[in-house]
Amino acid sequence: MSVQTWTFIIVGLTFALYIGIAIWSRAGSTSEFYVAGGGVHPVANGMATAADWMSAASFISMAGLISFMGYDGAVFLMGWTGGYVLLALLLAPYLRKFGKFTVPDFIGDRYYSNVARTVAVICAIIVSFTYVAGQMRGVGVVFSRFLEVDITTGVYIGMAIVFFYAVLGGMKGITYTQVAQYCVLIFAYMVPALFISLAMTGHVIPQLGLIGDVSDGSGMALLDKLDQLNTELGFAEYTNGTKTMTDVFAITFALMVGTAGLPHVIVRFFTVPRVKDARISAGWALLFIAILYTTAPAIAAFARYNLINTVSNEQYSSMPVWFSKWEETGLIAFTDKNNDGIIQYVADAGKNELTIDRDIMVLANPEIANLPNWVIALVAAGGLAAALSTAAGLLLVISTALSRDLIKMQINPNISEKGELMWARIGAVFAVIVAGYFGINPPGFVAAVVALAFGLAAASFFPAIVLGVFDKRMNREGAIAGMVVGISLMLWYMLKYKFGTFDGGKDAVAALKDGWWFGISPEGFGTVAMTVNLIIAFVVSRLTPAPPQEVQDIVEDIRVPRGAGSAHAH
Amino acid sequence: MSSLDKRAKQYWKENIRYVLILLSIWFLVSYVFGIFLVEPLNAIHIGGAKLGFWFAQQGSIYVFVILIFVYVNLMNKLDKKYEFDEI
Questions:
Q1: Which residue in A54, A58, A71 has the most chain B C-beta atoms within 10 A of its own C-beta, making it the best mutation to test that interface?
Q2: What letters, b where the CB count within 10 A reaches 16 and e where it falls short, cover A331-359?
Q3: Residue B70 contacts A where some CB pair is shorter than 8 Å
Q4: Does residue A87 have a pLDDT over 90?
């Protein structure tokens, strides 16, 4: 059977599965819509969190990025996993004990202020929208590459599917679909990785293959071989990066803290029954994520080695079939600058004749390794699962921000349960349409902004939540000042140094690099903005009145899993 | 101060101690081994990989997973000890 037929069958089956789950798990109450009724098993929640978390970027782009960045790719690997340690130790159990439905709920109640709640809602919407636009685009791209429909049609199909289970099932539908999506995506990621690792290093497990020897008879370690190949072609050694140490530190830290501050991740911990379940489900989530994240650097190294070996200094006419196939999609391009018919792939931009899109490393992997057609179709289904699951989680945050944080908590507190549920569904419809619009007409900045969503989350939510639990004296004034200054500073730095907004647009960006504070790139600036937030919150809170007694009692109460704090002492 | 208050205070103090210890390890494996000391550690090898590189792309992630499960274990015991465990 052809790849096309296989793809229709496998993608069709997975979609039927998602819709089946959506019908089975319709939400009947706001509690089911917002937090799946709070009865999700920790292992299931771990899987759902993993799927929620791993986006189209993790699945399709990350291994390719690492492949080209070498050591520097570690910023994503550590940055996007280390945040779960912070979640488990500093946030998840306390937010679960607090026992409300959304992040702005916590901020609004803990800081006894609708201003704080509104600031949190705005931050949540900024973060979630920047993130979701990239996901819908990812859905469109996967469709167009594997099913040969155009991107717009792909986005419409994706919208229809997400619409179905997010609007109908709310968090309950999303949770169980995400469990299925995790299984699909991890299977799709691991199958080609195992085959390639075995063929290339003789180890079935890619994590061992990465530190093993190349089976080409040379007896050389794979990574040493890569260092050698990279150096010969004029690139930096694979195991040494090109970024400065400060910048690597700042980016990693911003990604970690940002992960722990993302509303669509935090809200997943509201769905388990008990505090101890919130702790352990963070552990399961990270374990499930780690399976993919420790495989990605292995795929990156294998792909890099395969690529250089296949193309470097070879006749263009003798390239394998996959080369010309991916040339048609524009993901790989060859321009014979010196007309010798041989591919020169080197670091020197003047002599280099090959341009490669990073996404090809995962998408074309099965073909490069000569795997059967069904594996290629599986990768398409996996990419779609990754993009759809993340999009659904984000859409839920946006819809609850509307129905609960704005309408129920601020505009009409007397709204009936049924009315609130209706507004949640309207919110979801609205969010799907806006996300679809951005997927079809992506503003040029989408790709760049997704990485910056972490900086925004780090600069706004993380300090407010952590201080809310660990600093009883933290008050309304401090938290609001910290969040406003933190997110504004981050936005300003992003506009100035990423988009050149104040200096004549994108073309000016490269020249502004010398102005970076402490040599930190916009991607890493979340670290600085978060620190500023912390300091401002601390100073302002000490200069203004302490929070009222009942709020201090809330803090005492959320610190212990069972029983009440001093308010109910007897 | 009631006995419940004292119990909660003591529980919180022990919790903070666990968090600080575990976060030091978290910082050590990722930032110290994977970033600050990556060059000197690269002189040592684990299989075919330089140790600093390995910590940055593999080792730190394994340790993160272990840290969370250790914390869960410690806290479940602590909950029982102070009778804050949920039914």
A1: A71
A2: bbebeeeeeeebbbbbeeeeebbbebbbb
A3: no
A4: yes
Q: Kindly report the CA angle at A424 between A420 and A427, in degrees rounded to 5?
A: 135
Whole-number Cα distances in Å, A514 to A246, A505, A510, A521, A530: 14, 17, 9, 10, 22
Structure tokens of A81?
């996993």
> Closest Cα of chain B to A11: distance in Å?
31
pTM: 0.91
Nearest-CA residue of chain B relative to A290? B61
Whether the CB-CB separation of A371 and A192 falls below 8 Å is answered with yes
Task: Measure B21 CA to nearest chain A CA, in Å.
Answer: 11
Nearest to A389 by CA among A151, A102, A188, A114: A188
What does the pLDDT look like over A133-180, one tens digit per residue? 777 777 777 777 777 777 788 888 888 888 877 777 788 888 899 999
DSSP H helical ranges for A401-547: 417-440, 446-470, 476-497, 526-543
- Evaluate whether A479 touches A537 at the Cβ level (below 8 Å): yes
Nearest chain A residue (CA) to B66: A283
Helices of type H across A359-445? 360-363, 365-368, 373-400, 417-440
Cβ distance A63 to A299 under 8 Å? yes
The neighbouring-strand residues paired with B45 are B50
Token pair, residue A546, equals: 């302490």
Q: Which residue has the tokens 């803090």?
A: A555
Q: Which residues in chain A are closer than 8 Å to B13, comparing Cβ atoms?
A: none
Give the residue among A305, A350, A309, A288 at the shortest CA–CA distance from A70: A305
CA distance B84 to chain A (A): 5
| Residue A225 burial (CB count, 10 A) | 20
Tokens of A35: 């937090």
Phi-psi region of A70 (alpha: psi -120 to 50; beta: other; left: phi over 0): left
Measured between beta carbons, the chain A residues lying within 8 angstroms of B14 are none
